[in-house]
Specification:
The complex is a heterodimer of chains A (138) and B (428).
Chain A (H helix, E strand, L loop, with lengths): L4 E6 L5 E2 L4 E9 L6 E14 L5 E10 L5 H6 L2 E6 L7 E2 L3 E13 L5 E9 L12 E2 L1
Parallel strand pairs in A: 2-9
Antiparallel strand pairs in A: 1-3, 3-6, 4-5, 4-8, 7-8, 8-9
Chain B lengths: L19 H39 L2 E14 L7 E11 L2 E7 L10 H9 L6 E7 L2 E6 L6 H5 L4 H18 L4 H12 L18 H4 L8 E2 L6 H30 L5 H29 L5 E4 L9 E9 L2 E20 L2 E22 L4 E9 L8 E2 L3 E12 L6 E7 L12
Antiparallel strand pairs in B: 1-2, 1-4, 2-3, 4-5, 6-7, 7-8, 8-11, 9-10, 9-13, 12-13, 13-14
The chains are: A mainly beta (138), B alpha+beta (428).
Chain lengths: 138, 428
């Protein structure tokens, strides 16, 4: 039995966007077994990683509860998503603060764990930062 | 070299059970228990205090009774608390009844004089109005009206109910939901409070209203200094708290010595406390001197908020008297990350950009004069904008620092907000 796989793809294979630009793409589920998805969530979000605790904010969020007749379309045909990107926060590769944008798709099943796939992209073109002084801690 | 035995250490990050669901369920049970406790307390106050008083004033039947005796009754287990007890005879429910009462609560008080004055109002053998419960005439009172304490007590369970209720709502709202869905819900709620997420047009970029509200005298805006007033206040409070405890102990110790019954153990315990108290006082005055020894610095900027690749004029003024080995004005960008370590919250800062805007070696500012300088401030074309989230920040500031002989250098920060470029592109 092959485990189900979830794919997310941005149109044109783009990875760098600017604020105010339209981001669009598609997602689809590939499985050889009989699955019972109950809902699908598509989010365009940013989250921080690095030294600090994670901050996460959702720019676009769409949740669709699936009726049984919707299952074949989700399984066979790519589903579309699109949104105009906000002016901030821009992607940032800092020393202890890093901001990462991504499209995250999550499929929930009647039984078992949910399935998640991500596609990261860059908003803006802020260069990576470098430390100029040693760390200071409270 | 072998690693030393670590007696005490804390884990990085929050502690979690293996299952988020189990953790949430345990938290849900806790909040439900708190809510239930609040409900039980509220019910108890209602049944014991508020409802009897309300019924006394609305449903009790008035009649006339003859006072047989009136006395100040002491509490059976606490002889310092009293209540009036008026033995009254009255007709109710088709028969004569006699009972000792005054108010439906039957509460005791420590004020014996007030109770005696109440008792003195009732003379045995004379008739007075009596109010009795038509459902149970054995419950009667000689006085009506409301006591504010009975209704004020209804407020006691409110914080308990609110804590339990809000906790339950939080658990239910987040139950079986993804992190993204929880974040979307939280953002929807936070939009009700516009002050929380910075300016609405630039999400998570700090608002500029606090900085642009202060006009400058030389340039457009005067920047507010990051004031050390809070640290000074915290120091002062710690000083007062510690030395307050110490002074109480000192009084006891001095009295014991004066009475010839010296408390030597307490004396030995009080001495180190006094030394710590003195250290705190010394520390506070040293901090106060550091804060006040250099007159306030004035920094003004030609425009605000700042944007990458644009140039601004900066005006810096420093009043004397001051003898400085070096006086510098810097533009800096700092990252700040707050993280949990066990039950503690720690903050780490890292400077990621520094540009020297002005530097003067050997600066003498005589008393009553002002050293003034103007310099150009230019942000890098692809600079990161100011960013503020719950645990992570990117902060820009103008830093004024001066090195003084034989004293630690002074440093003053003036926050500036950097916004992304107006066309939305960062060096496009």
């Amino acid at each position: 039995m092959i485990a189900p796989r979830l794919y997310v793809q941005l149109d044109g294979g783009r990875r760098v966007y600017h604020p105010g630009e339209r981001l669009s793409g598609s997602y689809w589920l590939e499985s050889s077994t009989q699955l019972e998805p109950t809902a699908v969530e598509v989010s365009i979000l940013w989250h921080t990683f690095g030294k600090g605790d994670e901050d996460l904010a959702v720019h676009y969020f769409d949740r669709r509860a699936l009726a049984p007749h919707e299952l074949p379309s989700l399984l066979e045909h790519p589903q579309r998503f699109a949104s105009v990107l906000p002016p901030s926060p821009l992607s940032y590769e800092g020393v202890i603060v890093k901001i990462r944008w991504c499209v995250r798709v999550r499929v929930f099943f009647r039984k078992g764990k949910d399935l998640m796939a991500e596609c990261a992209f860059q908003l803006g073109d802020v260069p990576a930062a470098r430390a100029v002084l040693p760390a200071e801690r409270d | 070299m072998p690693r030393l035995l670590r007696v005490y250490g804390k884990k990085r990050g929050a502690r979690l059970t293996g299952s988020r669901k189990v953790g949430a369920a345990a938290l849900g049970i806790f909040f439900a228990a708190v809510f239930l406790a609040g409900g039980v307390l509220l019910g108890n106050i209602l049944v014991t205090w508020a409802l009897p008083e309300w019924r006394l004033n609305h449903t009790y039947v008035q009649t006339t009774g003859r006072v047989l005796a009136a006395r100040v009754a002491a509490h059976p287990s606490d002889p310092t608390r009293f209540r009036p007890e008026i033995t009254v005879e009255f007709q109710a429910g088709g028969r004569r009844r006699a009972l000792a009462t005054y108010h439906v609560h039957g509460a005791y008080t420590g004020n014996r004089e007030a109770v005696a004055a109440t008792v003195a109002r009732f003379r045995p053998g004379q008739s007075y109005p009596v109010w009795y419960d038509p459902r149970n005439p054995q419950r009667a009172a000689m006085a009506r009206g409301y006591t504010w304490s009975a209704w004020l007590m209804l407020l006691v369970p409110v914080p308990i109910l609110a804590t339990g209720g809000l906790g339950l709502v939080y658990i239910v709202a987040g139950w079986n939901k993804s992190a993204e869905r929880r974040a979307a819900l939280a953002q929807r709620v936070s939009r009700l409070d516009p002050a929380r997420a910075g300016s609405s047009t630039l999400p998570f970029v700090p608002g500029e209203t606090d900085l642009t509200s202060s006009p400058g005298t030389t340039l457009a805006f005067r920047l507010a200094a990051q004031t050390p007033a809070w640290s000074l206040l915290a120091f002062l409070l710690a000083c007062l708290f510690w030395n307050g405890i110490f002074s109480v102990l000192l009084t006891v110790v001095v009295r014991s010595h004066a009475a010839g019954n010296a408390e030597w153990f307490l004396t030995a315990f009080t001495v180190p406390l006094g030394l710590v108290g003195l250290l705190l006082v010394w520390g506070f005055f040293r901090h106060l001197r550091d804060v006040t020894r250099v007159a306030p610095t004035i920094v003004e900027v030609s425009s605000h908020p700042l944007r990458p690749a644009e140039e601004y004029e900066l005006y810096v003024a420093q009043p004397g008297p001051l003898h400085l080995e070096r006086f510098r004005v810097l533009l800096v960008c700092e990252e700040e990350a707050t993280y949990s370590q066990g039950t503690n919250s720690r903050t780490m800062r890292r400077r990621v950009y520094q540009d020297e805007l002005f530097c003067r070696e050997g600066l003498e500012i005589p008393a009553g004069t002002l050293f003034e300088t103007r310099c150009r401030l230019r942000l890098p074309p692809r600079a990161m904008h100011s960013f503020q989230a719950s645990h992570n920040q990117v902060r820009w500031k103008v830093l004024v620092e001066g090195a003084t002989p034989r004293r630690p250098f002074f440093e003053r920060g003036f926050t500036v907000h950097v916004h992304p470029r107006a066309n939305g592109a960062q060096g496009r």
